[in-house]
Amino acid sequence: MTTVRDILNGKGTQVWSIGPEQTVFDALTLMADKEIGALVVLDNRKVIGMISERDYARKVILKGRSSRETPVREIMTSRVCYVSQQRTVDECMALMTDKTVRHLPVMEDDQLVGIVSIGDVVKSIISEREFIIEQLEAYITGN
Q1: What domains sit in the chain, N to C, each tagged with a CATH number?
Q2: If DSSP states are collapsed to H, E and C, what string results for 26-85?
Q3: 111-124 tens-digit pLDDT
Q4: Whole-model pTM over 0.85
Q5: What are 114's strand-pairing partners?
Q6: How far apart are CA 81 and CA 64, in angstroms?
Q7: Which of 30, 89, 115, 118 has the most CB atoms within 10 Å of its CB?
Q8: Helices and strands in the chain: count of H runs, count of E runs
Q9: Closest among 47, 55, 63 to 28, alpha carbons compared
Q10: Are strands 17-18 and 103-108 parallel, antiparallel or unpaired?
């Protein structure tokens, strides 16, 4: 069974973050530059929230607010779901589905060590399933 550690070993542990007092515009600029959909919000290296494109759409645009004037802390999601490196991809998928989140920070000993996205999890599950199918086909055909 594939774990979060396996995903991070493949993709790396780079995590893009932003501070709570920075503007939503700064967050959007960073997300666009890095081609990502969410940032971890850190305060003194402690995870205090997440901000995503969804937060922007629902809490800034639809409310007529200005991204250049609104601080991240005002729209971030402060109840952050996270996982450890020992969690399986199936457990991540279940958590993401249950909590309707697309990104899970990876924490070890209260330290941020990576992040997994729904794309990472789906890619891993598909790869694992394809491997099983190949093995079964080889067994059936005797190769």
Answers
A1: 4-141 (3.10.580.10)
A2: HHHHHHHHHCCCEEEEEECCEEEEEEEHHHHHHHHHCCCCCCCCCEHHHCCECCCCCECC
A3: 999 999 999 999 99
A4: yes
A5: 106
A6: 28
A7: 115
A8: 5, 5
A9: 55
A10: unpaired
